[in-house]
């Protein structure tokens, strides 16, 4: 491949980390200890589940946000402020609706202080390259999603960035438009028609990563860190049905579904300030899925030959981001077993699908009590109170030692959903009170 002839690093990340101070004074670590180099001539895909810090990492490389630890080196010099070699294409296009296509594309050049003549000349050239010819004077609202994203590409490329960063650039587009734009971009890159040395694409799509990238960096959560850095040596254009392609996708699937942490369920961010839980202590993080989805997965697995997660996702037309949380939740509850990217019903899962609704509730109840720390903690707190009522604030206070406020809220909502299904407790939304129904407490107390 032509672009890969010359390989040298121009951006390096050294022990890079990012943390945020929470309103309660805790510091939540989002990304930790990232070390890698970006080479000239590569398309790099940054792949990982939502919340693994992909956008955060990209923004630090672009200099939009400063690191909390470590550094970004640009030609061996520590980056301070915006990275002059980077331009970004955003998922939601980020166009100014009151500016025409030409004016939007000119923006980056204007910010760089280019004179009006050269600005217009460069913008028009890029508009032409990117297939927007004839739309120079149109406003974003007159354009389709695909055309708007072309404006996003043209604006980023007009400044001739050394590194083109793209944050899920195709995910707001319909499937066909996305596919078309993906290949057009690849054409431009392979034919060296765009003035960029490397491309960094943030994605949660495994196939997208393996289709486009020369190298896939897989990020894991808890906190964000590099789990794998895989070279993709297949020549372009890649045949998605070829055994080599499928094997690579499979390999990435295995990495994503086999967390290398001792506690495989744990995805929570760690805390680094006082009062500080022991360093080794990470709070189990709940994937945000409903029990109904878990039940749906278990039923699908019954009597099924296909155990491979990737092929299962393909069959169900599910993206990895949709399937993985359901798989994770089922695994946490000990309803499925996963080995090397293959999934199968565990004994408890078998029992679940052969049970009636009340028995199913009892199975989930037992499972939550055995395996789900947040549910265990809520139950303990409820038991400790005479009236068996607690305020959700109490639970949120505990969770905010480990999660951002927003994530703490989501964790609580998931625990409410699961616990209510299992009839362990109830939740009064307006007052934010969690309580045990009297009939439950009475029967327990009389035992
Ligand atoms: P991804 O792109 O992989 O989905 P992000 O980089 O967007 O992940 O976010 C990683 C984590 O950092 C998320 O849990 C998110 O809530 C948190 N986060 C991102 N920005 C901030 C911020 N400004 N303050 C607090 N937490 C943040």
Automatic annotation (TrEMBL):
PROSITE patterns: ABC_TRANSPORTER_1, ABC_TRANSPORTER_2. GO terms for molecular function: ATP binding; ATP hydrolysis activity. It is a peripheral membrane protein. Residues 11-246 form the ABC transporter domain. The keyword Cell inner membrane does not apply. One of its GO terms (cellular component) is plasma membrane. InterPro entries: AAA+_ATPase (IPR003593), AAA-associated_dom_C (IPR018632), ABC_transporter-like_ATP-bd (IPR003439), ABC_transporter-like_CS (IPR017871), ABC_transporter_ATP-bind (IPR050166), P-loop_NTPase (IPR027417). It is an enzyme of class 3 (hydrolase). Residues 264-282 have a biased composition (Low complexity). Residues 259-284 are annotated as: Disordered. Its EC number is 3.6.3.36. Its main location: membrane. Keywords: ATP-binding, Hydrolase, Nucleotide-binding, Transport. It holds the Pfam family ABC_tran. CDD domains: ABC_NrtD_SsuB_transporters. It is found in: Cell inner membrane. Signal peptide: none annotated. SUPFAM superfamilies: P-loop containing nucleoside triphosphate hydrolases. Belongs to the ABC transporter superfamily. Nitrate/nitrite/cyanate uptake transporter (NitT) (TC 3.A.1.16) family. PANTHER family: ALIPHATIC SULFONATES IMPORT ATP-BINDING PROTEIN SSUB, TAURINE IMPORT ATP-BINDING PROTEIN-RELATED. This is Taurine-transporting ATPase. It comes from Pseudanabaena biceps PCC 7429.
């Amino acid at each position: 491949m032509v672009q890969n002839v010359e390989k040298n690093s121009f951006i390096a990340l050294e022990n890079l980390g990012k943390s945020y101070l929470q309103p309660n004074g805790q510091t939540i670590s989002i990304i930790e200890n990232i070390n890698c180099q970006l080479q000239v001539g590569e398309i790099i895909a940054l792949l990982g589940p939502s919340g693994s810090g992909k956008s955060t990492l990209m923004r630090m490389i672009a200099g939009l946000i400063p690191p909390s630890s470590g550094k970004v080196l640009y030609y061996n010099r520590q980056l301070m402020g915006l990275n002059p070699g980077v331009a970004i294409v955003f998922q939601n296009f980020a166009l100014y609706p009151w500016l025409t296509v030409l004016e939007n594309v000119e923006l980056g050049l204007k910010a760089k202080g280019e004179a009006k003549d050269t600005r217009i000349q460069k913008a028009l050239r890029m508009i032409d390259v990117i297939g927007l010819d004839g739309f120079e004077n149109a406003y974003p609202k007159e354009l389709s999603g695909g055309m708007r994203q072309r404006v996003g590409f043209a604006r980023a490329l007009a400044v001739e960035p050394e590194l083109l960063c793209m944050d899920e650039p195709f995910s707001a587009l319909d499937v066909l438009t996305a596919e078309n734009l993906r290949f057009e971009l690849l054409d431009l890159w392979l034919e060296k028609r765009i003035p960029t040395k490397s491309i960094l694409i943030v994605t949660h799509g495994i196939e997208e990563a393996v289709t486009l990238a020369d190298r896939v960096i897989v990020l894991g959560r808890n906190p964000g860190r590099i789990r794998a850095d895989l070279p993709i040596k297949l020549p372009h254009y890649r045949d998605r049905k070829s055994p080599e392609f499928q094997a690579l996708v499979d390999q990435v699937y295995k990495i994503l579904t086999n967390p290398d942490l001792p506690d495989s369920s744990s995805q929570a961010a760690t805390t680094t300030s006082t009062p500080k839980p022991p360093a080794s202590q990470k709070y189990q993080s709940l994937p945000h899925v409903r029990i109904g989805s878990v039940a749906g997965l278990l039923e699908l697995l019954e009597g099924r030959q296909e155990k491979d997660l990737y092929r299962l996702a393909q069959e169900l037309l599910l993206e990895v981001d949709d399937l993985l949380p359901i798989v994770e939740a089922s695994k946490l509850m000990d309803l499925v077993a996963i080995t090397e990217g293959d999934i199968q019903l565990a004994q408890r899962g078998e029992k679940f699908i052969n049970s009636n609704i009340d028995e199913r509730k009892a199975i989930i109840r037992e499972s939550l009590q055995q395996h789900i720390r947040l549910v265990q903690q809520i139950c303990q707190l409820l038991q400790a109170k005479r009236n068996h009522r607690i305020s959700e604030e109490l639970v949120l206070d505990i969770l905010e030692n480990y999660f951002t406020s927003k994530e703490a809220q989501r964790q609580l909502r998931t625990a409410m959903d699961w616990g209510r299904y299992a009839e362990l407790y109830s939740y009064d939304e307006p007052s934010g009170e969690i309580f045990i129904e009297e009939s439950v407490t009475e029967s327990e107390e009389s035992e």
